[in-house]
Write a structure and sequence with these properties.
The chain has eleven helices and ten strands. It is of the alpha+beta class and 303 residues long. Strands 1, 2, 3, 4, 5 and 6 form a six-stranded mixed beta sheet that branches.
Length: 303
């Protein structure tokens, strides 16, 4: 009888323990779900976006006024700094060409791209007007306040200064300089929004050097035509120079596929002398060397 009572007591304790631990487990699940929801919606509202944009604007302007190179560097993300050939040269270009007195007013505009799914991310395209030696300077920047699957993207990605207006402002990792103009014009080639699939071959021939065009086999050419006609979304871009070729890299997304496109532009002819495509898994973008060597094999069968 004593043994039976002991068994009942032990069983009861076990059930109570399981019950309490079950409650704790459930509470933890609820807490985790709430934290995930909060993280997902962190920069979803316009107020949150403008608050972040104002903070970044103030930090950028403060560094520009003081010509604080180290302060500006600290604003850039790890990913951006990794993709910039020479951040010191680019910041020297800014200080040599623009003597910034401060912001023209309190206004700042901001638009958002991103996703609030399992791996929330946000990329803000922001702009404002600056005063520089009695002139109005237009400043635009890309800022990544959140990138859950790879936090090395989080921070400032690019700066663009113009004495004209915001029209055709473009963004590459770092500070945009005039020497990037010829390679960036080839983004128009990639979007090809006004070109039909029937005219795509002529469009490609007009933009490629003869030698590069001849290297494409029929399957690769067909896949390239289909990709261009699909108008994939373009996100992060960066550039590097090597042996007289300026390479433009573009992270792109289409039909849940993630890939990097590389265009090499000959600096003498301003024509594309190299093209390659690399499909990659979420959270990992190949190195410049891997992308350049990628060729177009991955493109065939994906478009």
């Amino acid at each position: 009888m004593k043994h039976e009572k002991a068994a009942v007591i032990i069983t009861s304790i076990a059930l109570l323990t399981t019950s309490f631990s079950g409650c704790a487990f459930f509470d933890k699940m609820v807490e985790d779900a709430a934290e995930k929801a909060d993280a997902s919606m962190k920069y979803y509202s316009k107020d949150d976006q403008l608050e972040r944009a104002q903070e970044m604007k103030e930090d950028i302007v403060k560094c520009l006024k003081k010509e604080d190179k180290d302060g500006l560097k600290a604003l850039f993300s790890e990913k951006a700094l990794d993709r910039i050939d020479d951040i010191d040269e680019e910041l020297d270009y800014v200080f040599e060409n623009y003597e910034i007195d401060g912001a023209k007013d309190d206004d700042v505009s901001c638009s958002d791209k991103g996703d609030t799914g399992d791996y929330p991310w946000h990329m803000f395209s922001c702009s404002c007007e600056l005063e520089a030696s009695g002139k109005t300077i237009y400043l635009s920047w890309l800022d990544v306040p959140q990138y859950e699957k790879d936090t090395s993207y989080e921070g400032l990605y690019s700066l663009y200064f113009s004495e004209k207006d915001y029209t055709d402002m473009v963004h590459l990792a770092g500070v945009y300089m005039p020497e990037f103009d010829s390679v960036y014009e080839k983004v128009d080639f990639v979007t090809a929004k006004s070109v039909s699939l029937d005219d795509m071959e002529d469009h490609i021939e007009d933009n490629f050097t003869e030698e590069c065009f001849e290297d494409l086999d029929k399957d690769e050419l067909k896949a390239l035509k289909k990709m261009l006609n699909a108008h994939p979304q373009q996100y992060f871009r960066w550039t590097t120079e090597k042996d007289g070729v300026r390479y433009l890299f573009i992270e792109m997304y289409s039909s849940n596929k993630e890939f990097a496109l590389c265009l090499g532009v000959d600096e003498d002819s301003d024509l594309i002398c190299h093209v390659s495509f690399v499909k990659y898994d979420k959270g990992y973008v190949p190195s410049n060397k891997e992308i350049i060597k990628g060729g177009l094999d991955d493109l065939v069968g994906n478009f």
